[in-house]
């Protein structure tokens, strides 16, 4: 079975890509509105892609009625945001923040999510997130006028204490239970894991 993307509608292309590129990590982004309202919204077109400097990126499309999402408006104005990651205890709350909230109603306040101050930016982070990365906007790329690719530079990390071995600089995998996005309202757990021995590469004969 083959498709040329040009033969598919935008919605059909979205369905093909999100049906096979999975699971996808979720950026649960907090941003700050003009009246001090803290916005939280999940984005699964997301990943990190560099460590020097630490860079992440996520895509924000417009609402169905054409309005820009609060996350983009806030980031364009302030130039900073926090990428919070999600684990199983927070998964339902993360999903609920994907609903339609007006700018004057902050998702964390409405849903009873605890906030904590960031160390280097004005935008608060989600206090219970397993990992949070304070970000300054590194670059914005407009895509066809209806989507923005937001690239952020991580300038400060917050890690839930029990998840990290400071001496080994390694996560306690048995304690960290991240959630991945599949498609539509479907998510996945990540506890069924496979470990392979180190790859040997080409062997000398």
Q: How would you sum up this structure, described in words?
A:
The chain is an alpha+beta fold and 205 residues long. Helices cover 15% and strands 35% of the residues. The chain is built from four helices and 13 strands. The chain has helices at 10-20, 70-78, 91-96, 107-111; strands at residues 27-32, 38-43, 46-51, 54-61, 80-84, 115-116, 125-126, 131-143, 147-159, 164-165, 170-171, 179-181, 187-189. A hairpin with a 5-residue loop joins strand 12 (179-181) and strand 13. The mean pLDDT is 94. Pfam families: Flavin_Reduct. Belongs to the flavoredoxin family. Keywords: Flavoprotein, FMN. Its cofactor is FMN.
Q: How are the SSEs ordered, and which strands pair?
A:
Elements: H1 10-20, E1 27-32, E2 38-43, E3 46-51, E4 54-61, H2 70-78, E5 80-84, H3 91-96, H4 107-111, E6 115-116, E7 125-126, E8 131-143, E9 147-159, E10 164-165, E11 170-171, E12 179-181, E13 187-189
Antiparallel strand pairs: 1-2, 1-5, 3-4, 4-9, 5-8, 6-7, 8-9, 10-11, 12-13
């Amino acid at each position: 079975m083959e498709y040329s993307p040009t033969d598919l509608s935008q919605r059909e292309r979205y369905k093909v890509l999100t049906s096979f590129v999975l699971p996808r990590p979720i950026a649960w982004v907090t941003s700050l509105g003009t009246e001090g309202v803290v916005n939280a919204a999940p984005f699964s077109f997301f990943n990190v892609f560099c460590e020097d400097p630490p860079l992440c990126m996520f895509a924000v499309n417009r609402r169905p009625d054409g309005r820009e999402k609060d996350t983009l408006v806030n980031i364009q104005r302030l130039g900073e945001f926090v990428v919070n990651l999600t684990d199983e205890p927070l998964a339902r709350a993360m999903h609920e923040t994907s609903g339609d909230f007006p700018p004057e109603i902050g998702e964390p306040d409405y849903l009873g999510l605890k906030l904590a101050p960031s160390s280097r930016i004005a935008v608060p982070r989600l206090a219970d997130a397993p990992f949070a990365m304070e970000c300054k906007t590194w670059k914005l790329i407009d895509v066809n006028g209806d989507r923005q690719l937001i690239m952020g530079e991580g300038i400060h990390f917050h890690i839930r204490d029990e998840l990290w071995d400071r001496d080994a600089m390694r996560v306690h995998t048995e304690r960290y239970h991240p959630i991945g996005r599949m498609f539509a309202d479907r998510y996945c757990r990540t506890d069924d894991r496979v470990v392979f021995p180190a790859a040997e590469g080409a062997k000398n004969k």
